[in-house]
Amino acid sequence: MIGFFPTLYPDELWYSAIARFYIHSGIAYWSDALALLFPNHTSYPKVGDLMPNETMHQIVKQLPYDVLNLRMLALGHSLFSFRMRFIPLKQKKRYLEQFCAGENIQPALLSLTKKLQEHPLRYCPLCVQEDRDRFGEAFWHTEHQIWLMPLCAKHLCRLQSADQKNSMPLSRQLVQIPLRTSNVSSETHVWERELTFLLHQWYQMPFEQEANTQTFNLSRAIENAGLLLSGNVNRRSWDTDALYDRLTKQFGSTTVKEVFGERITAAHARRLRKMEIATPEEYALLSILLHMKPEALFEDEPIPLSIFEKMKTLSTSGRILTKAAIAEELQIHPEQVGAYAKRFSIQPFWVQSGCSKPKAERKHYTVTIHLSNEEKALVDEYLADQNIRAYSHMLRYCMQKELLHWQNEKGR
Ligand SMILES: [Zn+2]
């Protein structure tokens, strides 16, 4: 039984509470403090983990009933809720229940986060100051340990790394917030503020919040950004090389490499599209690159597809448009116009040559009309103005329009 254990501060990291226990206990060595807290441990207890583990079980067991509870420790003092953000609700609830029942969920969590490296602990100099004023001491905030988050969400200043030895894991060393913190750095990029805001929103969301796998909003944003492989109207495969390139340009190769690896494969992109990837960092960088709101991957509202909106507007504009002109406006290949219209259930609205009629309806009547020079010049001007390339297209359009009008008038 432990004589005392510090009350945890709001959002305090589990490691931070262990470190404060050591400082308040007056014990000379970090290893002796750990030996007192974890008497049955043969190896170093993993108190530096950012995810809930057996060290929480062992401390809770030694304290009077209900001083600390496991659910609160997992959800309020580790990165569990954040790291489970893209795990289906049923699965993450099961992990939480297993943990609260005293089971070791480390192997399951490791398989989800295996590629994550350990980063030095971080703090915000202004939060440190506020905590010292309010509580009389500083502590490590859990949120600041989301390694991709560049700034403090509250003060928007750059987070500072602790003076931590890289040669050994955090559990084996006492890392403290310096008494004198370095200067506050508030020079930041727009994307850093956006990324911080997005990660903060995801961190704050209720544990139960689940990603929406039905809207395919990530894929819609990819399409809006022109990052689909060309010629792929129906399959909608991502241009993963161009995507990786753009990510690298915005976030730098070190970050992108750590989050995605050396490249994004087609198979990986398919899993991202179906929201089957577990790491929030991947979705975070993509969301910022693609200008998505923090809620976009969670809400029921599909992101409007810009090409659909533009095509719909064109189709109801009453303008005479050829396939080539539509393609130019939508920045697609003329051959894709029909396929897109079909995908969006938009009736063909471009001028069609008689060849598109079924063969049985097609009889070859050729009409010749004689124009004066003035009339020819006027027609040419009209063609250029309406971006129509063939006389026959224009004549067919004018004829159809007049015939439709005449039919309507007569109520035929
Ligand atoms: Zn702060």
Overview of this protein structure:
The chain is mostly helical and 412 residues long. The protein contains 19 helices and 2 strands. The chain has a two-stranded antiparallel sheet with strand order 1-2. Helix 11 packs across helix 12 (253-260). The radius of gyration is 31 Å and the shape is elongated. The protein starts with 13 loop residues before the first helix and ends with a helix. The mean pLDDT is 90.
Summarize the structure.
This protein has 19 helices and 2 strands. With 412 residues, the protein is mostly helical.
Topology summary:
Layout: H1 14-25, H2 30-37, H3 54-62, H4 70-76, H5 80-83, H6 89-100, H7 106-113, E1 122-123, H8 125-135, E2 160-161, H9 190-204, H10 217-224, H11 240-251, H12 253-260, H13 266-273, H14 280-289, H15 306-315, H16 323-330, H17 337-343, H18 373-386, H19 391-410
Antiparallel strand pairs: 1-2
Helix pairs in contact: 11-12
This protein binds zinc ion.
Residues 124, 126-127, 152, 154-155 line the site of zinc ion.
